[in-house]
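If you are new to this repository, start here. Below is one unmodified record pulled from the training split, so you can see the exact layout before writing a loader.
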Amino acid sequence: RLGVPCPWPSDAVTICSFGDASADHSTATGAINAAIQVGYQNLPMPLLFVCEDNGIGISVRTPPGWIAHNFANRGGLEYFEADGCDLADVLAVSARAAAWVRHHRRPAFLHLRTVRLMGHAGSDVETVYRSRAVILADQHRDPLVSSARLLVTSGVLSVNDVLARYEAKRVVVLDLAREVAALPQLSTPEAVMAPLAAPSPSSVARVVGVGPHPERRTFFGATLPEDERPLTLAQSINRALGDLLVRHPEALVFGEDVARKGGVYGVTRGLARKAGGARVFDTLLDEQSVLGLALGAGVSGLLPIPEIQYLAYLHNAEDQLRGEAATLKFFSDGQYANPMVTRVAAYGYQKGFGGHFHNDNAVGVLRDIPGLLVASPARPDDAAGMLRTCAAAALADGAPSVFLEPIALYHSRDLHEENDNLWLSRYAAPEDWLSGHVPIGRGRTHGDGTDLTIITFANGLFLSMRAARRLARSGVSSRILDLRWLVPLPAEDILREAQVTGRALVVDETRRSGGVSEGVFAALVDGGFTGSLRRVTGQDSLTPLGSAARHVVVDEESIEHAALQLVRS
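And here is the target side for that same chain:
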């Protein structure tokens, strides 16, 4: 439908397998619900859920009959059931289930009743919680023994034939084990972490630097973005998303309210009309399903750009990043990847609409995921360039990234006075994208003061630039390093800019414990910085409603006060 090459045949069926205990997990519940909802909308969803039901999760019994009770009569989910210990039954029912899904392009549920042999894992002694009679009954239903019994009773093989085949396989397995044991082993940290290596800077730059697309005029209309007046942060992100959609037919933009409404802050406004509903679309209101869709799209050769409506909502689904997107390359040794750019409306300082659900500053969990890039632009020109960099890293290297967008700066125009328009930027023309490329892990310095270095990001840049003018009136000249990237931190830039003045003030709107400032301090100490250090951070608190929020966030006054103390000490 998109005209993009797909690695799968047109009649492919996706198989998703899990156990009876996992069927109760919220992730499984959400995935099955999402599949049913998509099918309900008459959209293709050729997905076969396969539940291997052995009746137990480690030591916790699944209530007898629960799987059938829960799934046999679900609307929009065709149900098939087979004896998982009878290979003939499994083959017949599985073929019927797959054929149904392939023909109807709708989800189905294949319930295989089976047994668990031995404990859950090597350390699990099942005799502690299972009786001898139950264990022996399950052993009698061993699918391998049942299959051998079927072959013997049907006259296909003799008992000796079965045993001979079994022993022959034992030899094959042992030979393979010896062969694998002789292979080179991972023996250094570098070898272990090779699949997590940062994307190649040259490969990313090459993707960024591709020239203008002939369809830009059709997409944007009479006025191209670079010919518009200076743009806000939200407008700049919007135009950059548009360029990605034009330039990469495999790009998809989706999430809650992103299409018809254009995002709750208008960032994606107009994109669905221009790119079409197959490429910019609304999803159901479930963050796990939003990111789960991105996982499937990425591994299928597409460029998913999902949106999570608020940073607080990301915590509902962060395991899709931690346990899936960022780990696939690691556990497959680079054979598979989940490229994606996850946009998140983030941080605090919203006026008139707040509370901890909409003003969250908890980014520590994102900085703790190996293999995940975390970008956090503050200015419109940086935002467009960094979004292109994240997309290029996904395309060139399969890298997943999170793009944190400061909500409070989306529509900001002025920095110091009304109508100064100092928080607007012109959009770069495609021929300037390479020269204006924002490399991964590089910051940007504003100002050339020699008394003090302020290190910050996102809303902190806005506040620090305002505070810097106040400091100048007190005779303190400062320079401000905008980190731009929270993972990886621009360690070289941090150390260089701090050494210029010998005094570093870290302004961090995230929390004091587990926040970004801790990583900045570590980079300075590890780099051998011997100057003076101080930090201003958000409190270890959730964000309250109304004016009370002022007491737990960073403000200009606290920045100015800390800066003066640092300089005068």
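Two things worth knowing about this chain: Residues 45 and 106 are 5 Å apart (CA to CA). The two ends are 65 Å apart (CA to CA).
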